[in-house]
Amino acid sequence: xxxxxxxxxxxxxxxxxxxxxxxxxxxxxxxxxxxxxxxxxxxxxxxxxxxxxxxxxxxxxxxxxxxxxxxxxxxxxxxxxxxxxxxxxxxxxxxxxxxxxxxxxxxxxxxxxxxxxxxxxxxxxxxxxxxxxxxxxxxxxxxxxxxxxxxxxxxxxxxxxxxxxxxxxxxxxxxxxxxxxxxxxxxxxxxxxxxxxxxxxxxxxxxxxxxxxxxxxxxxxxxxxxxxxxxxxxxxxxxxxxxxxxxxxxxxxxxxxxxxxxxxxxxxxxxxxxxxxxxxxxx
Length: 283
Prior knowledge:
By secondary structure, this protein is an alpha+beta fold. Helices cover 42% and strands 21% of the residues. Strands 1-2-9-4-7-10 form a six-stranded antiparallel beta sheet, with helices on one face.
């Protein structure tokens, strides 16, 4: 993690996580507005209110850090997350300073924050628009010698963009209950260790006592992918390891990772990797 003070009271944080969990508790006594953007991976926010929210690539969330409900711990379902957090201390009276930089448009940061938090103190989550994508994606590839000035320009650009973005057309706020999340994580663990068995949505639904539609919706909400795709990913990853580390035949490997015949395995493997199992073994 790296942190840059762009202006007095405005910090830009870059997160690059390659693990499953990080404990993080926002300071509830400060009046700080947070703008979060996910560039890659996935992040779970577990709030003390019991609500679970998820951000995936392109998602942006906005909210106040003034309530104990904002205190949360972070879980990264895919063990990968790359993103930025813009922290704005509105009590620093930054609006007057920013007005001197943008003379024709007044930037009222408190008003800006409030327009995104009318429904709750957490604020809202939004899917990416082209304008948002262009601003945030450019933050990750800045030469060190111009970062200080470049970040100042981009922060102002973010404020200006947020001042005109509709708060109704782009909201994306899918939340899940603890029971649903716990079941989905148990399903994920089961698939990751039992992928060699015959696994179907119906069998998982019966085994974990959850309706199929709820299971599919919650699994994709938490992990950003379907159960079918995750099962295939587990099998292909295991097959890669066996192809490189064992002398088993292609058919034996196919059976070992859950495929009943070699042709289906070869087709699935090539679709996932771009090469056949035999060609992969020779690399």
